[in-house]
Write a structure and sequence with these properties.
alpha+beta; 6-stranded antiparallel beta sheet
């Protein structure tokens, strides 16, 4: 049926197919231009991929010597993380310390007695205090749950409350301060005090506060260890100043039970003399013998002056400088004494606190003695008081989950007191996190972050190898190059095979590969380690694993890492490794040599604005634009050509139809004539 001709529906001579065949020949230049565009776009994408790889390499290289380089990062490591840890910033110095945590900082947390879960809180003004801050809540009355929500909403980050289910139908109310430190006690007043007493949270009591009188009439003065100096002790406005080699005794007179919560709180201040505080004795003047004379008849005769020869004077040697910060002692009624922990130097008065039950152990304290055995340090104490730290504002908690207290630690034997467990003002660039109590010293080290350095080096080597692999694939036609890249997935391997050798004649990439390989293997002498000048010396080379036999992959410029060698180098040579990657040889404080610096200098012309990659892609874009304009012109010409062919074949069809009609007419006319005969 395909050869049946239907006028007006199907061409008698299959003109459409003939025209299509003719147009295929006409479209060959246009198809070539389109194929060229597709090839150019692929090449552009390959150059862009090379640019991305090179840019990643540059970023990893610059990271090794920029302002944020990992060599300046610090970490804190503790011998006991459950006691104290540290967070170090880049400003911290590499150093080590020994800490002992005597007490962690805590906040007041008071728990009520078990309450019925249907207990209601009456309307009123409930006033709480945290240290010197006061929070008043005007409550309209309601359930315990609603009261807790009101406190949490209006607590201003100072106080909070919660409910604890004791058993079915019974709950306890917990009110707590959010601020740690002895100065941030939780207090109640007004309706809050009534509620706390009603719920069995606190009871009324006094603070058991005893202020110790410091005056000329109470303070006794003496010297230390039989010193030849006179006691130099002054008392003024409740402060006693004890000069070097002097002592003072402040009477206390209080008996401390073995389980007593009382503490001794006082303030200390020191002043260290920078020069010699002792007067050098002068030589003795010798005997004073009066002269005599006699006068007779107006004539005076003088006696010859007496001659008293003196031995040569040798001044006594100055005393040896002595520094002793354990200057505070408690004297008990049985004649025994107990030395209090050492104080620290402070230009201003600093608060100290001591748990008396740990020191007195049920004895009666007679006095507090200041025995200043220092030769160049004046010690002052003031505001001495004894108090019960569990009492606050006339109330004593009945069920204290915790009591507000300061963190007390010793650093290298110096006692430090802070209101918080996060101490950031003790060591520059370091924040200490106090976690628990320890009787044994805990070592804390601030060191370079070797893990961050190792990660940055591995990233650099990885990006280096990816750039080298990309260039090898684009410039060579050996399938083994792809087989050697065992880290590629199947899809990545297939994509690599499509671009294999596509830039085999490009001298830019071949030269870049050679220069990059040279930058990674060249020597860069360091000033801190005379024997460290090559990446291979820290375990990075083309044959770091020391494999035997011939392996062509090791000739293609890839780098390997021997982690054991690298880890060993990072243990002790981080400053020298930093110089290996980038160092300043001119004193300008700007790096001018090193592996990372040279790699960055090498790749910069490729990825900077207007660089080689940009020029390559812009050139390709220009060629694509030219071919696209050519395709537009060819499409216009092809459309006109196709239209012309269709017109010509349509005319041919029409002419053939007319000729056929004429032939039929002649045939009909001949048949009619033969019929008439």
């Amino acid at each position: 049926m395909s050869d049946i001709y239907v006028p007006g529906v199907r061409s008698r001579f299959n003109s459409d197919q003939i025209i299509e065949d003719l147009m295929k020949l006409e479209r060959i230049p246009r198809d070539r231009a389109q194929n060229n565009i597709d090839t150019l776009r692929l090449q552009k994408s390959y150059w862009q991929e090379v640019g991305r790889r090179i840019n990643s390499l540059r970023d990893s290289a610059r990271h090794l010597y920029s302002f944020q380089n990992p060599f300046n990062e610090r970490i804190g490591s503790s011998s006991n993380d459950s006691v104290i840890t540290a967070f170090a910033t880049r400003e911290a110095s590499e150093q080590s310390f020994s800490f002992t945590v005597k007490q962690t900082a805590a906040a007041d947390r008071f728990l009520s007695q078990p309450l019925d879960d249907k207990t209601r809180v009456e309307a009123g003004i409930y006033t709480f205090s945290v240290g010197n801050d006061e929070i008043s809540i005007n409550y309209r009355g309601g359930t315990l749950r609603n009261f807790v929500d009101t406190i949490n909403n209006r607590g201003r980050d100072k106080i909070s409350a919660s409910l604890i289910n004791v058993r079915s139908g019974t709950i306890s109310l917990l009110i707590e301060s959010k601020l740690t430190g002895a100065e941030n006690r939780l207090g109640f007043s007004g309706d809050a005090a009534t509620l706390a007493i009603q719920f069995g949270m606190v009871e009324r009591s006094n603070d058991t506060l005893k202020n110790i009188d410091i005056s000329d009439s109470t303070v006794q003065k003496s010297v230390v260890n039989g010193s030849a100096n006179n006691a130099n002790v002054t008392v003024n406005d409740g402060v006693v100043k004890v000069a070097p080699l002097s002592a003072a005794s402040v009477p206390i007179g209080i008996t401390i039970g073995s389980e007593s919560p009382l503490v001794l709180r006082l303030e200390t201040q020191t002043r260290v003399e920078t020069g010699d505080v002792f007067n050098v004795p002068q030589p003795p003047p010798g005997p004073n013998v009066p002269s005599s004379s006699v006068t007779y008849g107006g004539i005076t005769i003088e006696n010859q002056p007496s001659n008293a020869p003196l031995p040569e004077f040798t001044p006594p040697p100055p005393p040896v400088r002595q520094d002793d910060m354990a200057v505070l002692n408690l004297v008990f009624s049985d004649g025994s004494t107990a030395k209090l922990p050492a104080i620290s130097d402070s230009n201003s008065f600093t608060a100290r606190q001591y748990n008396l039950s740990d020191v007195a152990r049920g004895k009666t304290i007679v006095s507090l003695n200041v025995e200043n055995t220092n030769t160049h340090r004046e010690v002052s104490i003031g505001k001495v008081e004894i108090l019960d730290p569990t009492s606050t504002s006339g109330f004593k908690p009945l069920n204290a989950v915790s009591t507000a207290r300061d963190a007390i630690i010793t650093m290298e034997g110096i006692e430090i007191i802070r209101t918080t467990n996060n101490i950031d003002d003790l060591i520059p660039g370091v924040t200490l996190n106090v976690r628990g109590i320890s009787d044994k010293p805990v070592d804390l080290r601030i060191t370079a972050n070797a893990d961050a350095v190792k990660e940055a080096i591995i990233s650099f080597v990885g990006n280096y190898n990816r750039v080298m692999a990309e260039i090898n694939v684009l410039t060579r036609r050996d399938d083994r190059i792809i087989d050697e890249l065992t880290y590629l997935t199947k899809d990545e391997s297939d994509a690599m095979r499509e671009r294999l050798g596509i830039f085999s004649g490009d001298s830019t990439l071949n030269t870049f590969r050679t220069n990059l390989q040279r930058a990674g293997t060249a020597p860069y002498p360091t000033s801190l380690e005379r024997d460290l000048a090559l990446l291979a010396q820290i375990g990075i080379s083309s044959n770091a694993t020391r494999a035997s036999g011939y392996d062509p992959a090791r000739l293609r410029g890839y780098l390997e890492i021997d982690e054991k060698v690298l880890d060993a180098a990072l243990e002790s040579k981080i400053p020298a490794i930093k110089e290996l990657f980038a160092s300043d040889t001119t004193g300008s404080l700007i790096a001018d040599t090193g592996v990372a610096f040279n790699v960055d200098s090498l790749v910069r012309p490729f990825v900077e604005i207007g660089g080689i990659i940009s020029l390559k892609t812009s050139t390709i874009d220009s060629r694509i634009n030219q071919d696209e304009r050519r395709i537009v012109n060819l499409d216009r010409q092809l459309a006109a050509k196709e239209q012309d062919l269709r017109i010509q074949y349509a005319r041919m069809e029409a002419a053939f139809s007319r000729m056929e009609q004429m032939s039929n007419s002649l045939d009909n006319f001949s048949q009619q004539n033969r019929g008439n005969r």
